[in-house]
Amino acid sequence: MSYLVLARRWRPRKFADLVGQDIVVRTLRNAVAQGRLAHAYLFCGIRGVGKTTLARLMAMSINCEAVEEGEPCGQCASCQGILNGSLLEVQEMDAASHTGVDDIREIIDGIRYPPASTRYKVYIIDEAHMLSRNAFNALLKTLEEPPSWALFILATTEPEKLPLTVRSRCQRFDLRRLSTMEILAYLKQVAEREGITHDEEALLAIARAAGGSVRDALSLGERLLVYGNGAWRQADVRQALGLVEDDLSCRLSEAIFEGKGADAVRMLREAQMAGHGVRSLLQSLASLWHRLGCSIVDRGLVHEELNEPMRQWLSLQAERLSWPWLDLRYQVLVQGMRDFDVLDETLGGEMLLLRLAGLNLLDEQQPRPAVQVSSSPTSSPVSAPASVAGNETEQDAKPVTDNGLPLGGAVSPGYSSWAQAVEAYAGVRPGIAAILECVVCTEFGERVRLQLTPLQERQLSVPDRGEFETWLGREVFWERRQEGSGESLSEQRRRRMQAEEERLRRIAEQDPHVRQLRERLDAELVKVLPAGVQDDERGNGEA
């Protein structure tokens, strides 16, 4: 097969060709030029930033016959042998497929003999974190004190998985993730050298999709060259990669921000008909809101690669939106996308958009005068807006459900206990109330303190907590549960039921009729339930 893909054709042959790793390159070149070589190196970083390539360049530079200031010539027999993989003194092992002790023993057995045609023997272990624990243990002594002619280079995407004893024996270099603008400049260079017809927006889309990896950018570019008949055009890039247009994301955001749930669902369905996936559309929405959040906090945080129309849209939205307002919707969006593992994406996506748009209704209901039911105007954390007429009665202001529970306003101060409040909230949000029954309440007054386990923290999202706090009309402090802090309502109920069962059991054991039955049937007393309660009903109560 004579054709070479872009990623292989543009693989660096000199240190100077490596993109975006100037600090690492300078250090290694100086080490070669000054003869201050470590016996083992560890190169870390995400995929496609040059770890293995840098290891090969290092092997070339220390064995090059005409090295100049640490830069290999690329023309001598040693350099050519490393480039085409024929030099026996440079061995490259893929630890993902050679994980055992026997593979390491082959290295240990061969390292004892000096090189025949080069100055150094170089052992490159790619994806080193895949080695087994026994393999690492077998390598330790050799890695610490190798022969003077041997050099180890380990490359990994997950350095934290390497034993500390291995990491401490290596000189570590972290190769950084490239920025979108750096990859964009590199793609321009590739396009000009290869004679590829392109436009700026297409290159920018490829650079963003690469996620900081040069190899990913070239691999995507190769795929798009085939799709676009030798050209990189914006329309082809978006179709081939399934990217969502910025205009669609902006229009969908505006519909959500304005509370137009029906329009948002129509846009989603039209996008699906055009070939966009629900997940990719919502991910583009999350990415856009991230940029918008940065713009709200500080205009200087806006990414420099954005085009002018997008900058203007972000600036306009940032002027009229607040960070807490946007953050609530962002949290709802992210939490809703996690449900896609158990839901149909289309149904889940449409319900998520309706939920996001419906948050505006919650905003409208929140500042009700019903919140001001306390004799002290400062006892409630929510105050009534100035636009509400002062002579409006509480009965008119507070909407209620069919069972008489407050809806969208503060809970009545008549709830003197946490149990009463949870029982009342079960008529509004039964699912959330079921979780709250398992939460420990350490204080219930003008302020409420609740302690949650890590699981409960994940179950109760930020929007759920905010909605409950608004309904309760009291300041709620959400804390991590501490050992010995108390019992939840469900734990109290379970303890009472166990005590009652034990009491009934003692009574039953003393009953002469029960004793007679046990003796006659040679049976044991397994469980005692109150009259009228079935076993499955009791089990449901405990759950």
Would you write up a description of this structure?
By secondary structure, the protein is of the alpha/beta class. The protein has five domains: 6-174, Rossmann fold, CATH 3.40.50.300; 180-241, Helicase, Ruva Protein, domain 3; 246-362, Zinc Finger, Delta Prime, domain 3; 418-486; 490-521, no CATH class. It has helices at residues 6-9, 22-34, 51-63, 77-84, 101-111, 133-144, 164-167, 180-194, 200-210, 214-227, 234-241, 246-257, 261-273, 278-297, 308-320, 323-338, 345-365, 394-397, 418-425, 430-436, 454-459, 462-472, 489-510, 512-521, 535-542, and strands at 40-44, 90-94, 121-126, 150-156, 171-174, 197-198, 231-232, 440-444, 447-452, 475-480. The strands form three sheets. Strands 2-3-4-1-5 form a five-stranded parallel sheet, covered by helices on one side. α2 runs parallel beside α3 (51-63), α3 packs antiparallel against α4 and α9 packs across α10.
The CATH top-level class label of the largest domain: Alpha Beta
Main sheet overview: 5 strands, parallel
Supply the CATH architecture of the largest domain: 3-Layer(aba) Sandwich
CATH H-level superfamily of the largest domain: P-loop containing nucleotide triphosphate hydrolases
Q: Which secondary structure elements does this structure contain, and how are they paired or packed?
A:
Layout: H1 6-9, H2 22-34, E1 40-44, H3 51-63, H4 77-84, E2 90-94, H5 101-111, E3 121-126, H6 133-144, E4 150-156, H7 164-167, E5 171-174, H8 180-194, E6 197-198, H9 200-210, H10 214-227, E7 231-232, H11 234-241, H12 246-257, H13 261-273, H14 278-297, H15 308-320, H16 323-338, H17 345-365, H18 394-397, H19 418-425, H20 430-436, E8 440-444, E9 447-452, H21 454-459, H22 462-472, E10 475-480, H23 489-510, H24 512-521, H25 535-542
Parallel strand pairs: 1-4, 1-5, 2-3, 3-4, 6-7, 9-10
Antiparallel strand pairs: 8-9
Helix pairs in contact: 2-3, 3-4, 5-6, 8-9, 9-10, 9-11, 12-13, 12-14, 13-17, 14-15, 14-16, 16-17
